[in-house]
Amino acid sequence: MKIAIGFIAVLVVLVGAVYGLARAHVLPLQGLAKSSPAAKNLLLSMKLIMPDAPKSKPKTLAAAIPDPLAAQKAQLAQEEAQVVAEKALLDRKIAATPSAPPAAPTPASPPITVTASKLVEIYEAMGSDDLATLFAKEPDSAVVSALIAMDSKKAAKALAALPSDRAAKITALMNQAMATAPNSQTPSTS
User: Fold this and answer.
1) Whether the Cβ atoms of residue 114 and residue 143 lie closer than 8 Å to each other
2) In the beta sheet, which residues pair with residue 188?
């Protein structure tokens, strides 16, 4: 009898240890439950495994709550489509419009007066980079008049310091001014 009680005690300790390990998820009981329906029922009754979750997809919270900005988003999308359509229409109109003829050059200002000659002397004393900075803010007619009245070498350095597009435009205006006034002052060559 002592042997039977000892055997039962050892058996109870072993079953308790297995139960504890199963509750701590140390023993993999899911595989056993999948292989045998009877073992699954026993493990479920002992609460050693959890019942299978339903196979349906869970509803997401975002799907349940309507978007409060949905109407505004739709309106913005519609306005964006209108803007894109208007831009495409304007691009087609621009492409279909023939390019405008180049603007007529502005006529040269009247001949330089005595006070303007003093200004030319000041310009000639300045460096070419400083003149280019100054001429960038002056109207074309004033720059043309000043360059025509300046010493040729100083005028050439100042013209070279200007951006190429502006220098080309100024040169064309200078040629036009010199061609329309043949008796006017010619650039000095000192």
Assistant:
1) no
2) 151
Residue 63 falls inside a structural domain: no
Residues, the chain, total? 190
Q: Is 176 left (phi over 0), alpha (psi -120 to 50) or beta?
A: alpha
Identify the pLDDT of residue 83: 93
The answer to whether residue 31 sits within a structural domain is yes
CA distances from 140 to 2, 22, 38, 112, 134 (A): 123, 94, 101, 15, 12
Question: What is the total count of domains within the chain?
Answer: 2
Look at 48-57, 147-156, 167-176 and tell me which has the smallest mean pLDDT: 48-57
Domain that holds residue 173: 114-180
pTM of the entire structure?
A: 0.37
Most confident of 77-81, 91-95, 157-161: 77-81
> Would you list the DSSP string of 43-85?
HHHTTSSPPPPPSSPPPPHHHHSPPTTHHHHHHHHHHHHHHHH
Q: With CA atoms as reference, report the closest residue to 18 among 37, 41, 46, 45.
A: 46
Residue 176 lies in a domain: yes
Measured CA to CA, the distance from residue 23 to residue 19 in angstroms comes to: 6
Whether residue 30 lies inside any domain: the answer is yes
What are 93's two structure tokens?
């109109």
Using a 10 angstrom Cβ sphere, with 0-12 exposed, 13-18 middle and 19 or more buried, the burial of residue 105 is: middle
